[in-house]
Amino acid sequence: MAWSDFLEVGRHHRMQHPSALTDRMDEAEPADIATLIYTSGTTGPPKGAMLTNLNIDFSIQTLVLGGGFSSPPPTQDDLLLSYLPLSHVAERTFSVWFNAGSGCQIAFAESIETVATDLVEVQPTIFLGVPRIWEKLMSSIIVRTHAATALKRWWYRAWMKLASGEASRLAHARGRRSLMGRVWYWMGYVALFRALQDRIGLRRCRFAASGAAPISPEVLTFFMGIGVPMHEIYGMTENCAIATANKPGAINVGPWGNRTTILSCHWTRKMGKCWSGTLAYSLDIGICPRRRLQLLTRTAGCTPAT
């Protein structure tokens, strides 16, 4: 069938059934499967997580409207850069569900190789970076510094020594700057940090996150020192990326952070696993049908997060 013929079939169907889309939407139930997102397969064969309408709605209510990640929550004035595959639950959260819930603007990178260049062009206000992206951005700053003049290298080392000390204090103060820390940061911002933020495209960024894999504390403190508001977040495909997050004013370097919502979450030392339960969990987590119904109506259910 030619494309024009296919479009003609659609036009004919719309004329015969003008309310078909509305009828389908009215028939939708919270337990209906909205999408299948496959896990990475790092701990076993990839499996498709069956995320329902309720799962996605709960994710939007918690992470977007409720400010589960960024605080204040995202708005229409925010701009994000999308570069991971949309089949990844983290990118689906930050690109699709953030946009659906808040109307924020989404800019798409040309490719994964051009993220550094696209960041400078887009200057996002909210940015999710996997650890490899943050490592590349830090390396680009260090490489450029080594190629600079002796005077510029001295200037960089002097202010980055200040940044390192301030980052350590921030880490111990859970991300809260003291009055003296604000004064020193303002001086460093004028002298060096603003230029560094411009060169990596994060001067307008009010919430920067690292997720999807562990990240070195040294990388986190490097960006915290130059004024990039870094936060570690954690989630899984099976729970719509809702689990724990470091939030402004309550940052722990290394740990995932506090739970993001009404979530049962505890660490089992014997098994070395984190167990958590929430409305965000998909239907394919080994819960019997009777328990699945409870999962859809209240915070219940429990599944291992490795």
Structure description:
The protein is α/β, with parallel strands linked by helices. It has one domain: ANL, N-terminal domain (Rossmann fold, 3-Layer(aba) Sandwich), CATH 3.40.50.12780. Helices cover about 45% and strands about 15% of the residues. It has 10 helices and 12 strands. The strands form 4 sheets. A 5-stranded mixed β-sheet has the order 5-6-7-8-9, sandwiched between helices. α4 (about 90-100) links the parallel β3 (about 80) and β4 (about 105-110). α3 (about 55-65) packs across α4 (about 90-100), α7 (about 150-170) crosses α8 and α7 crosses α9. The longest helix is centred in the middle third of the chain and has 23 residues, at about 150-170. It is elongated and about 75 Å long. The chain starts with a helix and ends with a strand.
